[in-house]
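Duplicate of earlier report; RRM domain-containing protein input re-posted below.
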Amino acid sequence: VRVYTVAQESKYVVVFNVPCFASESDLINIAKPFGEIVFCEKVSHLFDHEEYTDVFRFKFIHIDSAREMKRKCDETSLLGSILHVQYSPEAESLAETKEKFMKRIDKVNELVLQYQENRERALRYKIPTEPLKLQSVASCPPKSSPMTHKSSTNDEISK
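Output:
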């Protein structure tokens, strides 16, 4: 399991190991189900890649779309080649990065507020109970056993 920070995730996704005979429309058809695509461009000149393969970059409108594509398309096959999908935060502008962090701050604040409201609601409806009163062991009366064992003496045994 790999965990990504807010800084590492991005609306931009890079797809490696795309066969050179695959068309851009093939990739767009793979990415469309995950959300609205802003653009798809060939960026093989920017990255090291294997011979006879290309590299493409997508930009999605929502980061959730990029997250879903990364999760579902990484290590999938396209025309006999295994695709490798990764985020591309280096393609973001400073304004896009700032927007991403502000949205995350808003989301975290919303979750904290929701947690606090749920907690307060649960405490409001909790049935009040009296605290338990503990007694010391010395003050407890001894329990009488239902079967008392009478010690036998030598006289009783001889009878």
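The chain has two domains: 12-91, 93-124.

Merging into the original ticket.
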